[in-house]
Design a protein that fits this description.
alpha/beta
Length: about 200
Amino acid sequence: MNKKLQNILIIDFGSQYTQLIARRIRELEVFCLVYPYNKITNKLIKKINPSAFIISGGPKSVLEENSPKLNSKILDYKKPILGICYGMQLLTKCLNGQVVHSIHREYGHTLINIKIKSPIFNGIKKNKLKVWMSHGDNIKKIPVDFSISSYSNNNIISSIENKQKKIYCLQFHPEVFHTDYGSKIIENFVFKITKIKK
């Protein structure tokens, strides 16, 4: 691939919404590629030379022994990363945070409360957003050097971030139309955080 062509690599963990993530990015006139998690190799990453990674959701639990794993080498590239749902839990686990089974599973419309000023929520004037959740696990302990940027109304961590490393994680799905300002959140990751050009 032409190294001058900026692009985003979406790593698919089996979410029914993965193609929607790609669609939202392409609507922003940005090039992206979707590859299944088990095809991600160093050779592929060097060939694609992505400007950023997006780690999709998925139907499994990171607490299952045979659940799909993240190629931890991705963290060595020091590129911006957006983890969505299962992607958030994977990154948390990889970075020595703690994921637990939820007592109350969140599914469908959920209200979240934004707690800090964050680049991922840039330009959104509201502190409460209606989002679309679909998860049976949640984050009990965030990784070192991360901040919690929002909680759900059930007091479950709904987003975390490490601004310095440009790693942003969302427990909800910004790619679906059920999430308020979802397109804006993706746009912020693409343009404000990754600083990619159309």
